[in-house]
Design goal:
alpha/beta, two-stranded antiparallel sheet
Length: 327
Amino acid sequence: MKDSISNKIDSALEFRYIAKIRSLQKEVEKVIKGKSETIKLSLVTLIARGNLLIEDVPGIGKTTLSNALARSLNLSFQRIQFTSDLLPSDVIGLSVYNQRSEEFEFKPGPIFANIVLADEINRATPKTQSALLEAMAERQVTVDGISRPLPEPFMVVATQNPTEHHGTYPLPESQLDRFTLRLHIGYPSREEEKQILRDRENADPLDFVHPVMDKDEVLQLQNLATQVHVDDALVDYLLQIVEQTRRNEMIEIGISPRGSLSLFRCAQALALVEGRDFCIADDIKRLVLPCFAHRLIISSRHSSAVNRTREAERILKEILSRTKVPV
């Protein structure tokens, strides 16, 4: 059975998907220069059926990355600007009374898209932030007691500025735990920034991003990812890392089972993106920080609120260094 699955994945990758994945990365790199790892992990999040949190200063390209990804995959895209006066109904939609039919009609909100950009998510009130919880976890929203499925594939890409705290509402643990990966884009190099300026001299590079996949192919990739083999030794390696986060005295709340599953699914997706039908230890090591750091709650006795993110990453690096890598 395992051989037949491997052959199926190898065949699909060899004749179709490896070339398409590479073409997809090149399309996005037309507008996001020098950030191949960020682009790759964004695609990994989508293939793993996850949600993405991009945390960085303004003007780095967070919105552009989301838009370019949607265009290159020919998926529907909606941008929601989160503000303090945004209501849950502005996100998920509401029922409106139709006088002609004398019935209530549901008017869907911008959440009904394949890729939804929640821009500056921490500027909305907790009540509005919570409107995303059901969508991110169950791929549906419930209005007036009726559950409505969201389009597939579906991914929320949220952004926030980590350096600005005025007028913001910190994301609660339940919200953070629903983000599969958290990424930083970072500043471009001097040469990359020069190329960005030249590319935008006469036109918007987004206008030249062309679809290289469609919705059905993305769904096929998601299904193929679940068939990527993960050896028992790698599962034990993953769980050793998770258990150490739960026993560490500097960590108040360790990784949840949802976090473990997120890392497992992302490792499968990363292997698929890199053309393999099996995971290796480096897949897990490479994903631990973006998958786990935002989920850890550091004890206030050991860290100030300002540097808890850095402290979480430091602790995870220590855990990785003392965890034996399986052969």
